[in-house]
């Protein structure tokens, strides 16, 4: 009898606190930790005179009818034209001219970096585009998203902390082997040039060539990470994000932002807010003011899925980078809960982790309520800093696994978010060692605005 009573009490405590939900720490162990950089000659410049290289595209306007086409010409400024046309109508060719940038960093001078914004594209349409001239013409393609709407399906890839190692190559190839991904949500830390003497800027060039096989064909939605700062006063480099800001252009002004480091876009069924973990975000700063106004603009009837991207995670149970996102959590988490953010995507920690829906907004320093609680208005926090960069894996998880951690694993991989409609999205995480068809972690996400059901109840 006493045993039964005790069991009942335990069950009641578990139900009311959620503390007995067992998260999973994967027992999977990677066979090796090879994450050295690929040699520079793995990414030769394309053939031809002054051939355009490092081609990458990103959404170029608020709602998906624009595209920013970026590329580098190594020797001469021109040609600075992109020609583009609908795949089913090659007779009607349009042109756009780029703005041309270059920068110096320590002993390095960049090539000519082109950014051309093309506008008034048709939704849900395949386009071809062409760069270069003479013996160096190169042709690429992309598809525009559907017009933003509540029930348009759309699939995002999720990657972070990629670098340019053999493991990075495996991650990118793995993602590309699945035809489902239509755009990439990239959560920061691109080239890892800063791991080399004097922030060897040629690493930015090899990285641009490495990722071109995807970035020239799908828009990557960019977030800046700490390895993108390139702040090095010891070698006379005082401008934070100097290489990143020259190489990556985003449509920040269209969302009322004053910096390319934080901005928002609407793409299909998703409203995507990009934040900068390494820019000022405390109260009264431009980023804070912008974000406060930003949430009020989101119309869940038009874009039901509200996704926030940061580099440093707000919740993570790895001992690497312990609590580095805590100051942002204190400031922004009340808004994430108030406005029912569906997902917060981050990188930085070189491992994979998925949280439960939890919040910690009651805590005010003096009341002692410093433990996160289950909260169905809160986002799920995904850490996907597992792209495979030169620094290796973060394999020092806290023990025991905290209740708010649903799944964690120190392996390289990528995520895939398949938004089906306004209520359901299917999420999978794929480790590099498996075939793409093998799913190491998966769950259904239920939209917090339209269908705020507890996802864990269905397991
Ligand atoms: Fe990082």
TrEMBL record:
Matches recorded under InterPro entries: Calcineurin-like_PHP, Metallo-depent_PP-like, MPP_PAP, PAPs-like, PAPs_C, PAPs_N, Purple_acid_Pase-like_N
Mitochondrion keyword on record: no
The UniProt record lists the keyword tRNA-binding: no
Catalytic activity reported: a phosphate monoester + H2O = an alcohol + phosphate
Cofactor: Zn(2+); Fe cation
Occurrences of domain Calcineurin-like phosphoesterase (ranges): 155-352
EC number: 3.1.3.2
Domain of life of the source: Eukaryota
Sample GO molecular function, one term: acid phosphatase activity
Region listing for Disordered, in residue ranges: 29-54
Enzyme class, UniProt record, top EC level: hydrolase
Domain Purple acid phosphatase C-terminal: 378-441
Purple acid phosphatase N-terminal domain span: 52-144
Pfam families: Metallophos (PF00149), Metallophos_C (PF14008), Pur_ac_phosph_N (PF16656)
GO CC list: plant-type cell wall
Family: Belongs to the metallophosphoesterase superfamily. Purple acid phosphatase family.
Protein name in the entry: Purple acid phosphatase
Species whose genome carries this gene: Spinacia oleracea (Spinach)
Gene label: LOC110799370
